[in-house]
């Protein structure tokens, strides 16, 4: 029989959407290709924006992050002219981040969705989506009045919408990051961004005993080229530990290469297929926005689908793009600016020298201009 909404994907977008729909009395089912343990164990994002915390709190989904999340309100920048700290919680709109690992949030959202009586089928890979019908590999078709594609950037839903003629806008930042997860306490109380002629290095707490580090690396880098020793040595160089003190080291739990690319679908849905999260567009992790945009879009889409299914009013769906895209593009613009701040040119020569001078001019402006610091804080934590 037909449900109200078939949701493809149990990541932040699909799970927030499913919980909000159940809360509004809309029947839905979530189809997730991975096993529950895999979904709940995948370490990715870690910084929740104030808006995301508000959405989760207002919808009874914030018990875990309230109990175990930690507010974060400072970031520091290191360059060849020293370091400075921005207490962004006292700048701009005074908003802070909540540090809460994405896999913990996903675990909370799965538990709450099931507690609310939601149907969530793990190990069900969707092969095809057409006009409200979803074909599951080796299983039966599931039909819904609407389908919500929350299956990430390489998902079926995105391909289905592009096949219907939706165009993408895309940007390749030309930079890759070696994303490292270390079993080591944070080395500093702030988010650390280090600019260095050898490339960017980043430090982001995840929990009291696990820290994420990033190292800018050439496109096409194989993570296997980076031994633990080489990782810590390079981080020490770029983080200028000789000048600012040592990093707290520990075993590397995970290392992966992330190519910094961004794209946005010009329309995140049409007819009976509507997308949210990475399926609707990918944003580079430079400014830690991806999971936060997923929550933003899930809330907007939950409202629009509820109106359509309970009152037959599709105005919200027709407005979804107009409501979501200005905020999505604001996040992309800031993330793009941030990428230009963090990453200097790899090669040398007149253009590279010009690019590096711009990079340091941005840093100097952020260090000295209170107006720029307010702008930074508002966009860094805002969505
Ligand atoms: P997801 O990719 O999380 O979820 C999609 C789900 O759909 C998956 O569970 C997948 O198994 C399932 N699926 C896919 N195809 C399917 C099919 N055919 N059938 C059924 N199920 C299917 N964002 C931040 O905000 N802050 C950060 O600090 C941050 N750091 C990051 C660090 C790294 C290394 C990476 C890779 C990303 C980071 N991100 C960060 C971005 C990241 O968190 C994403 O934006 C976020 O997971 C998006 O959530 P979803 O749109 O739900 O997609």
From TrEMBL:
It holds the Pfam family FAD_binding_3. Its EC number is 1.14.13.2. GO terms for molecular function: 4-hydroxybenzoate 3-monooxygenase activity. Residues 3-335 form the FAD-binding domain. The keyword Iron does not apply. It comes from the Bacteria. PANTHER family: P-HYDROXYBENZOATE HYDROXYLASE, TRK SYSTEM POTASSIUM UPTAKE PROTEIN. This is 4-hydroxybenzoate 3-monooxygenase. The lineage of its organism: Bacteria, Bacillati, Actinomycetota, Actinomycetes, Kitasatosporales.
